[in-house]
Design brief:
Layout: E1 3-8, H1 13-27, E2 31-38, H2 49-62, E3 70-74, H3 85-96, E4 100-103, H4 111-124, E5 130-133, E6 145-148, H5 153-161, H6 169-185, E7 194-199, E8 222-223, E9 228-229
Parallel strand pairs: 1-2, 1-4, 2-3, 4-5
Antiparallel strand pairs: 5-7, 6-7, 8-9
The structure holds zinc ion (ZN).
Length: 230
């Protein structure tokens, strides 16, 4: 049983980028700490405290089957400039005593995602591996590990749909396409879904497959008797 700490920048990031892997980890008995760094107050046409409160509720609903999220309440859209962000994030990580951290990558598309990635890397130090989640629609991301999320895909879409303030169909559509594509990259049979991850490579965290849930199933690509590709 591992302590898994998942940290997303915004109230719907855990659902969009890593829900399936977290559900698979919970199913095998891992303990999950779910952390949302910013309050999401800028993520809508009427920014402000009311939106932040709504988004907090949406996050609690979206993640209900995985656990109760910690909402750090840091400023949305300004994580890199928030004077207390580094300390607040570091303290949350320390308290969770992680064996594995899952978060965004420093190459991600959103400034808050990139800022969070740097804070998390500094906070983790040499303590544990950091698994970096796929980007939106997989843009610019080179996967190293794939997790079969097929049994959790319906729950993932439901979790994303809890974010009613975000026009969430955009993100369920993106997840369905990206996660199907990632499974297809593994040559998994039709109907499978996968999330893709890469490792922030630091000694001694160079191959952590033994810590991850199963990869998608593989179907033989070449059928010797028929000379046909399947
Ligand atoms: Zn985000």
């Amino acid at each position: 049983m591992l302590n898994i700490t998942a940290i997303g920048a915004h109230p719907d990031d855990l659902e969009i980028f890593m829900y399936g892997c977290l559900a698979a980890m919970k199913a095998r008995g891992d303990r999950l700490t779910l952390i949302v760094a910013t309050d999401g107050a800028k993520g809508g046409s009427e920014p402000g405290p009311a939106l932040a409160a709504q988004r907090a509720e949406e996050t609690q609903k979206g993640l209900a089957d995985l656990g109760k999220p910690q909402l750090l309440g840091l400023p949305d859209g300004a994580l890199v400039m928030a004077p207390d962000a580094r300390q607040v994030i570091t303290e949350a990580i320390n308290a969770s005593q992680p064996d594995v951290i899952i978060t965004h990558g420093p190459e991600d598309y959103h400034p808050d995602h990139r800022a969070l990635a740097h804070y998390v890397q500094d906070a983790a130090g040499f303590r544990c591996p950091i698994l970096i989640a796929d980007t939106l629609m997989g843009v610019g991301f080179q996967p190293e590990f794939y997790v079969d999320i097929t049994p959790h895909m319906v729950a993932k879409e439901k979790a994303i749909m809890a974010h009613t303030s975000q026009m969430p169909h955009r993100f369920t559509d993106a997840a369905r396409i990206t996660n199907r594509f990632r499974a297809a990259q593994c040559n998994a049979p039709d109907g499978h879904y996968a999330e893709a991850y890469r490792l922030e490579r630091r000694f001694p965290f160079t191959d952590i497959r033994c810590l991850l849930p199963d990869a998608p199933p593989y179907r033989p690509f070449y059928v010797p008797d028929s000379d046909a590709l399947i």
